[in-house]
Amino acid sequence: MKNRASAASLALLLTACSGHASGERAGIIRGDGTRGRSVYLERCAACHGAEARGSRLGPSLRALSPTWNEKRIFAAIEEPEAPMPKLYPSQLTRRDLADVAAYIDRIAAEK
Hints:
Elements: H1 2-17, H2 33-43, H3 45-48, H4 70-78, H5 94-110
């Protein structure tokens, strides 16, 4: 019986860690860059510019280092450093975050 309980606990832990568990923090969602452009224009362009080339309020997002992949972009939007405003979860959903991260990752790669 103890082995069954241990196996069940391990299975539950592996499911939670793999992103199959329910809840918003279960893992990063794969983003849709096309939808991300729309969200970007609505929520990010005021500071970073319509073409993400930067402005006096925010830096260019087209000049990101190759170490800035979609996962790192997602994390930077989710928990931004000042002076960038925290838009999640008050203005952006996790889906929005994933989509914007996919869009920024795509345009940064275009350089």
